[in-house]
Design goal:
It contains 10 helices and 21 strands. The chain has helices spanning 84-91, 94-103, 117-122, 130-170, 181-184, 208-213, 281-287, 291-298, 311-316, 324-363, and strands spanning 8-14, 21-28, 37-38, 44-46, 56-58, 67-68, 74-75, 177-180, 186-189, 203-206, 218-219, 224-226, 236-237, 242-245, 247-248, 257-260, 266-268, 272-276, 302-303, 307-308, 318-321. Helix 4 (130-170) runs antiparallel to helix 10 (324-363). The protein starts with 7 loop residues before the first strand and ends in an 8-residue tail after the last helix.
Length: 371
């Protein structure tokens, strides 16, 4: 299809591990250069680059008219043999992923392996009777409903925490001050290291990307280490310092902070900043998630290919500075909510693991389905 120049064209993608379709970007028709194809409800679709990561879905009515590139082929399902949603579930299973990877071709890097349409159609699927397919879908739908409820609970608690934090920070009196971050103490940038340099034990380190994915507002442990001989080339956060992401793929992630509360100094990546300060460490970290701070940060972000904030821009941002007892009280309230959020998130993660095991058992007939 060729969109008109003034059209807003929505492009869809297929998430990994059977997580379904999503709208990944919008473009003006004038910016669409390659061929695009309209999605059709009821069709089976997959991502050719990530079939081995179980990237399959059925197009539902919500995506009628949304488009995809040629990397997302669509297929009509023979409904006499398969319930479309069951076929997508089967194709999103680990056993099918292994078959898909065996026929995928491309560059040496696995992440660029492509399953071509002709090779996909060569693959076989062990389908139970349609009655069993429907029953399996009902079982998995019940599990999905429970997982969705847990994730919604996490989202609601996170939103409530942000709102409460904003409210607590507005309850100011004459004992509070304001201070530019650069006046709090020393603000330095970390030093370069790469993930290829990780070792099994050595100098604990925090890569900027881990601030987004591995840590909450505080941590006492690291997940990666560097060799001892690199020590002279590194910069370290001391216990109590903040480690702040200076770079992110999105505006929400940049300037996320984590308080380092481990026993020893930790090496920090050069796309992150180290803030040595005089605040209660947990309180300092939570400040960076407050609505008031995020609104300030929005005006100093360099939104290029990746989102960045310079050291000088960060140093100019202003934060509230209540008495130490108030800092501790606010931090205690936020940490209590965080513990509840983490407990619910852990429960959702366990349910997702159980879901994967259940799907495997049902599809391989380790567990029989009573129809």
């Amino acid at each position: 299809m060729l969109p008109a120049d003034d059209d807003t064209v929505r492009f869809a993608g297929v998430r990994w591990y059977g997580a379904g379709l999503f709208v990944r970007e919008e473009r003006k028709g004038s910016k669409v250069k390659g061929k695009c194809f309209a999605l059709k409800p009821g069709m089976l679709i997959y991502n050719r680059l990530f079939a081995w990561k179980q990237s399959f879905a059925i197009v539902d009515d919500e995506y009628d008219g949304v488009v995809v590139s040629s990397e997302f082929p669509q297929f009509e399902v023979d409904t006499a043999k398969a319930v479309p949603e069951f076929l997508a579930l089967y194709c999103s299973s680990p056993v099918f992923a292994d078959k898909a990877l065996s026929l995928s071709t491309g560059s040496a890097a696995v992440s660029r392996n492509r399953l071509k349409e002709a090779d996909f159609l060569r693959l076989t699927a062990a389908l139970p009777p349609k009655e069993s397919q429907v029953k399996i879908l009902e079982i998995i739908a019940a599990v999905d409903k429970a997982i969705k409820a847990l994730l919604a609970e996490v989202d609601a608690a996170e939103a409530a925490r942000v709102a409460l934090l904003g409210d607590l920070l507005q309850r100011r009196d004459d004992s509070w001050n304001e201070c530019a971050i650069g006046k709090l103490g020393t603000l330095t940038r970390g030093k370069r290291f790469t993930k290829s340099e990780y070792v099994e034990s050595g100098i604990g380190c925090i890569h900027y990307s881990q601030i987004h994915t591995d840590f909450g507002a505080l941590t006492t442990e690291v997940h990666s280490w560097l060799p001892e001989e690199m020590r002279p080339k590194l910069r370290f956060a001391k216990p109590g310092n903040l480690v702040i992401a200076g770079t992110s793929e999105n505006i929400q992630g940049v300037l996320k902070a984590v308080a380092w509360l481990g026993e020893d100094p930790v090496a920090v990546h050069d796309d992150a900043y180290i803030l040595e300060h005089g605040l209660e460490p947990r309180f300092a970290s939570y400040l960076f998630a407050s609505p008031e701070f995020r609104e300030q940060a929005r005006h100093v972000i360099s939104d290029t290919k990746v989102v960045r904030v310079s050291r000088d821009a960060l140093a100019r941002l202003v934060i509230p500075k209540p008495p130490p007892s108030t800092q501790a009280s606010i931090a205690d309230a936020m940490e209590a909510i965080d513990k509840q959020i983490q407990a619910t998130a852990d429960e959702a993660a366990k349910a997702q693991t159980a879901r994967a095991a259940l799907i495997d058992a049902l599809l391989t007939q380790k567990v029989e389905v009573a129809v």
